[in-house]
């Protein structure tokens, strides 16, 4: 008795068997189960793929036996026989991993054809031309995919053939030439035995799991190499059997806008890859209503049935063979962020899904694409398009044009913004596409490979821009008699398909409509608050617009750098007596206060956490001799003395130097003046606007409770004096950042003096790893390449190390003060998986850049749904 089954007929599987049957196999099985017309077939499991690699790249005898047995059953079901001269069964062989990797791996169609079965197929179809056309395609596909023969060799034969309408004898001649190429390249004849063809094709699909484009795709999408691919063997149906046959791809809703109408394209008398490869001019699906009305209405019914069944927008492939409709594939359709939001909202309104399900449907990072790209509206109004194509993937892009993926990548790596311009993109262009701001092609429809890949990556794309004449070799394109050369700027509008022949500024779009409905749901669901890191009134305003519930980190360093202030802080540094220092700082007081007033006004009654100064004093001092001279003249101090003073502030490692609370300990008057400004501003705004403000004053870079206690005493003393003098009641809080490992380790002690902890995960990561946050990039790429680090710990929280410290600090802090406020304000606060971690350990809030707030709100809601608290 065999312990494992490696081959499943479609009707033996179901949707839950993704890991084993791959996404495509599981879906085909599910489709059969719900009564969709799907050509018969079977799936060879992902475990068989793993076994194949484990057994020195051979398909074991027991698996071959299972394959033949399944094939026998398909023969029975279809009434056709593999290799039969009169009634041949032909199959397609396709890859299908657990997660769809569109266009990344290989497909072989028409397998089973040989010099004899081709005649049988011709008789069966009553169309000899069709049979030889299919045979030619098969030889070409088998040779390139299975044997790795260069595609161009076959294309050259086709290019030399009289192109108009190839006759049967033309096709026969082409086949002879194709077989010769095969023979020249492999040293053997084209295989005539269908079983051998099949096993070779299956092995080739297993092998394609490790082809370079699949490996790159997996790397950029975080898909594990270990999963392997399943192989689907399916009886062929033919879209190229004449005018009542065709093939197409469709989305059950518009994947670019989300609009609720079936969106697709088809080609009459064409096969398989023709539509996605951008060959021929596809017709919009609505035209099918006239071409083949019965198929159209059946198609629409099934499209709706599939969408209702899967409760999501579907991306389907279909073929019509002599008026009979078959579905070859269905999967959740990739979509732009705009479409994702609209579909989620519409589906809730249609009662198809609930709000939580809708919230889980949108990938948080996708919202990023919504918040970054658009052209400046005025500039757009003034601009004249040089060409127009199909708006295949939304967004705006501006960059220099390059005509090959290698060039695009090279110039991107040198820091240029690039746009890849091609007749059509090939699967191997993936690196060039991902290096580009935008893609422009002259061929291909909305479902062409370029369009699908760009949408998946959130890259702007315009396809079918056929009034452009590209000369890829010379590196230019011509449009309306104007030549655009390699390196010239163009701009693409992925929402209209317009192409502009110049540099155009891109700006953040306004948010409204579906976006606000959807974001409203995330706010209803999530328990963790989302605040912003914002230092200026403008940033605070933006943060509030994006839905920030407060300001988690207002850094005050920038406020000192303004032209009209830096001289006072320099005076403070240079003067030697405390009295002089205080006097200099008092000149800053009204300016700081004005800043805080504006920040409080912009924040309304939302919490605002203001952090005391956290930068090395050396940063405020002039560096070169002439600036030092200017300063000495201005302040009336001796040049040499000033130069010596400046030098005395130099630090070899400023990140570990005189910054954070260490400043306030050396210069208590800085903490005093800042507290005064913070409190007076709050009182003024409370008095003027009636806002109930509770300032949160945060002490940075604390490593132990004594540091905090010292600075807190200054803060409390100053704050209480200000409150008393104002005659107005005002609460306030004093808390600390936890960003030094020692602070995390002694958090129980620190909690006695702090009302809140805000984890500074940038410094905490820097100090825990001992890696400089500013100089890491060079080492990090080799660390990631060599898998020493799986990811950049400054972008995504390192749960095993830094996360452990945070978890420990949270527990220790709560032991001392059960209701201590908990937040995070480092860079990782924008990363969805880190947000899930912060949710899980019970943070009250996360704080991130204003533009990342929607991503964080969605990630926090998803974390709540997955692990309710
Ligand atoms: C941090 O260290 O995580 C932090 C937010 O502070 P800064 O980036 O200002 O050092
Ligand atoms: Mg810090």
Automatic annotation (TrEMBL):
Listed EC numbers: 2.7.9.1
InterPro entries to which the protein is assigned, alphabetical: ATP_grasp_subdomain_1, PEP-util_enz_mobile_dom, PEP_util_C, Phosphohistidine_dom_sf, PPDK_AMP/ATP-bd, Pyruvate_phosphate_dikinase, Pyrv/PenolPyrv_kinase-like_dom, Pyrv_kinase-like_dom_sf
Source taxon at top rank: Bacteria
Domain Pyruvate phosphate dikinase AMP/ATP-binding: 57-291, 298-350
Keyword Kinase found: yes
Pfam hit, one: PPDK_N
Gene3D superfamilies, A to Z: 1.20.80.30, ATP-grasp fold, A domain, ATP-grasp fold, B domain, Phosphoenolpyruvate-binding domains, Phosphohistidine domain, Pyruvate Phosphate Dikinase, domain 2
Cofactor (UniProt): Mg(2+)
Domain PEP-utilising enzyme mobile: 416-497
Domain PEP-utilising enzyme C-terminal: 515-864
Enzyme class: transferase
GO molecular-function term, one example from the UniProt record: pyruvate, phosphate dikinase activity
Keywords for the protein's UniProt record, in alphabetical order: ATP-binding, Kinase, Magnesium, Metal-binding, Nucleotide-binding, Pyruvate, Transferase
Similarity comment text for this entry: Belongs to the PEP-utilizing enzyme family.
UniProt protein name: Pyruvate, phosphate dikinase
Organism from which the protein derives: Clostridium lapidicellarium
């Amino acid at each position: 008795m065999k312990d494992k089954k490696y081959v499943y007929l479609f009707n033996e599987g179901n949707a839950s068997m993704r890991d084993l049957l791959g996404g495509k196999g599981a879906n085909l099985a599910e489709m059969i189960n719900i009564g969709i017309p799907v050509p018969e077939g079977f799936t060879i499991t992902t475990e068989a793929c793993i076994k194949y690699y484990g057994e020195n790249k051979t398909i074991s005898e027991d698996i071959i036996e299972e394959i033949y047995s399944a094939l026998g059953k398909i023969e029975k079901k279809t009434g056709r026989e593999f290799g039969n001269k009169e009634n041949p069964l032909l199959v397609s062989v396709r890859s299908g991993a657990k997660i769809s990797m569109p266009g990344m791996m290989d497909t072989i169609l028409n397998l089973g054809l040989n010099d004899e079965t081709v005649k049988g197929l011709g008789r069966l179809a009553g169309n000899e031309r069709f049979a030889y056309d299919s045979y030619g395609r098969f030889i070409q596909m088998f040779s390139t995919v299975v044997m790795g023969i260069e595609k161009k060799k076959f294309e050259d034969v086709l290019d030399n053939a009289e192109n108009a309408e190839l006759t049967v004898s033309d096709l026969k001649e082409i086949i002879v030439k194709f077989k010769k190429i095969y023979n020249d390249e492999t040293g053997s004849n084209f295989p005539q035995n269908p079983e051998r063809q099949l096993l070779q094709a299956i092995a080739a699909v297993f092998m394609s799991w490790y082809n370079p484009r699949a490996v790159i795709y997996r790397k950029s999408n975080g898909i594990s190499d270990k999963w392997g691919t399943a192989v689907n063997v399916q009886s062929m149906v033919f879209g190229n059997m004449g005018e009542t046959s065709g093939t197409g791809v469709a989305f059950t809703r518009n994947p670019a806008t989300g609009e609720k109408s079936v969106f697709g394209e088809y080609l009459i008398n064409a096969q398989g890859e023709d539509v996605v490869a951008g060959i021929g001019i596809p017709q919009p699906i609505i035209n099918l209503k006239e071409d083949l009305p019965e198929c159209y209405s059946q198609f629409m019914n099934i499209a709706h049935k599939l969408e209702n069944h899967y409760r999501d927008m579907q991306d389907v492939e279909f073929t019509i063979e002599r008026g009979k409709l078959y579905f070859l594939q269905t999967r959740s359709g990739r979509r732009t962020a705009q479409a994702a939001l609209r579909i989620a909202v519409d589906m809730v309104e249609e009662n198809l899904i609930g709000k939580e399900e809708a919230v889980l449907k949108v990938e948080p990072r996708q919202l990023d694409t919504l918040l970054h790209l658009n052209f400046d509206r005025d500039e757009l109004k003034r601009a004249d398009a040089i060409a127009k194509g199909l708006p295949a993937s939304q967004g705006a892009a501006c960059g220099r044009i390059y005509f090959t993926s290698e060039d695009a990548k090279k110039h991107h790596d040198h820091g240029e913004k690039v746009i890849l311009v091609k007749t059509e993109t090939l699967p191997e262009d993936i690196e060039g596409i991902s290096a580009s701001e935008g893609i422009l092609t002259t061929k291909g429809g909305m479902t062409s490979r370029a369009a699908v890949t760009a949408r998946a990556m959130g890259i702007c794309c315009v396809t079918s821009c056929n009034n452009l004449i590209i000369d890829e070799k010379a590196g230019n394109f011509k449009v309306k008699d104007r030549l655009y050369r390699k390196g010239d700027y163009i701009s693409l509008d992925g929402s209209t398909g317009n192409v502009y022949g110049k540099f155009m500024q891109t700006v953040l779009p306004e948010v409204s409509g579906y976006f606000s409905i959807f974001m409203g749901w995330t706010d209803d669901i999530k328990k963790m608050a989302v605040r912003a890191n914002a230092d200026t009134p403008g940033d605070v305003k933006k943060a509030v617009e994006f839905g920030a519930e407060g300001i988690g980190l207002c850094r005050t360093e920038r406020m000192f750098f303004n032209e009209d202030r830096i001289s006072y802080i320099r005076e403070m540094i240079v003067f030697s007596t405390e009295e002089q220092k205080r006097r200099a700082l008092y000149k800053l007081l009204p300016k700081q206060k004005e800043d805080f007033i504006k920040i409080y006004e912009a924040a309304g009654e939302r919490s605002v956490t203001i952090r005391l100064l956290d930068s090395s004093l050396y940063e405020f001092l002039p560096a070169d001799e002439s600036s030092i001279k200017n300063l000495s003249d201005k302040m009336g101090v001796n040049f040499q003395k000033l130069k010596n003073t400046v030098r005395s502030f130099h630090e070899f490692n400023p990140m570990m130097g005189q910054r954070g609370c260490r400043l306030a300990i050396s210069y208590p008057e800085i903490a005093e003046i800042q507290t005064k400004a913070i409190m007076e501003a709050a009182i003024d705004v409370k008095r003027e606007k009636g806002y109930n403000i509770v300032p949160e004053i945060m002490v940075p870079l604390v490593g132990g409770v004594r540091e905090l206690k010292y600075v807190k005493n200054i803060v409390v003393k100053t704050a209480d004096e200000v409150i008393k003098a104002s005659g107005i009641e005002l609460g306030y809080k004093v808390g600390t950042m936890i960003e030094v490992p020692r602070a995390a380790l002694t958090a129980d002690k620190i909690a006695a003096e702090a009302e809140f902890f805000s984890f500074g995960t940038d410094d905490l990561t820097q100090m825990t790893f001992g890696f400089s946050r500013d100089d890491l990039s060079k080492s990090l790429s080799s660390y990631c390449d060599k898998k020493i680090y799986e990811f950049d710990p400054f972008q995504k929280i390192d749960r095993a190390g830094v996360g452990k410290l945070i978890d420990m600090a949270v527990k220790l802090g709560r032991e001392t003060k059960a209701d201590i406020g908990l937040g995070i304000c480092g860079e990782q606060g924008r990363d969805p998986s880190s947000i899930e971690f912060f949710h899980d350990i019970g943070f009250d809030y996360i704080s991130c850049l204003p533009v990342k707030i929607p991503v964080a709100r969605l990630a926090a809601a998803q974390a709540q749904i997955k692990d309710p608290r």
